[in-house]
DNA sequence: CATCATGTAATTATAAAAGTTACATGAAAA
DNA sequence: TTTTCATGTAACTTTTATAATTACATGATG
């Protein structure tokens, strides 16, 4: 199965937008992400509808963050993408007439629901501000590798 | 993304084999599963290597369970399938040079690892015997719907 | 009003599972 | 021992999802 990497990509874009006052064009973001501007517009659409980002047309247009990084969780971003499937495995048939298959589906559904709920809850606790802090830490570590003096 | 339903399908097949002494052919199992015999052989291969089932060629050949249903967990079956991806979402790049993307990947990886571990642990607690019991319960309920007298 | 940037529909490329075909291997029956 | 049956696999096709691309409409700015 092909894994959906839109969440990862969208987070990447959002962090690159952080701190910038001027709008960033889809063209620029696409270069950072090594993809196509249309892909950027597509994955940003949900965030715009939810008011997390704003977009402007024409000269000086582009994308800007519309709220604080601390106010967006990874779950928000996931929802903005239309809440795509989190689990890669599923049932063969949605409403099987076979009782054996019904039992299998019921058992799997319970576990999968639990795992999804747990993952969603976890995503809800991580804000973009936390990711940004993590990024800053990495930047400091790279600039001043372990063992070196401040 | 297309969801992997091999686990569900394999469990279905195994439960249909339960209790049968004589070998069941891939042909028969494929009819039950409404699929192709080759698909059956493919998903059963891992279980055979691990000794959970045996297969025989020629006349009177086919598949038989090689152990008690209580001794196979859903996790065993998942492993027999080659431990396919459980999560449908992943990273864009495996080893990104961009520090921002590294931070994103690290944050996601933590949560995903946790969710996967939790799901695997859960699968490890469910045996085929439990699924079989669930099936039997459903059978009894269908034969004697709620409200009817024993 | 020309240019720039988004908005979106339509099309093509890509990747993984599922399904199919073809044939080799080996066991049991005739 | 030869025929038949069933597995074991490799190779190929189909299916279905995301991702990438193309094309063009919309609207803002200089």
TrEMBL record, chains A, B:
SUPFAM superfamilies: Winged helix' DNA-binding domain. GO terms for cellular component: cytosol. This is Rrf2 family transcriptional regulator. Pfam families: Rrf2. Transmembrane segments: none annotated. The lineage of its organism: Bacteria, Pseudomonadati, Pseudomonadota, Alphaproteobacteria, Hyphomicrobiales. GO terms for molecular function: DNA-binding transcription factor activity. It comes from the Bacteria. PROSITE patterns: HTH_RRF2_2. It comes from Bosea vaviloviae.
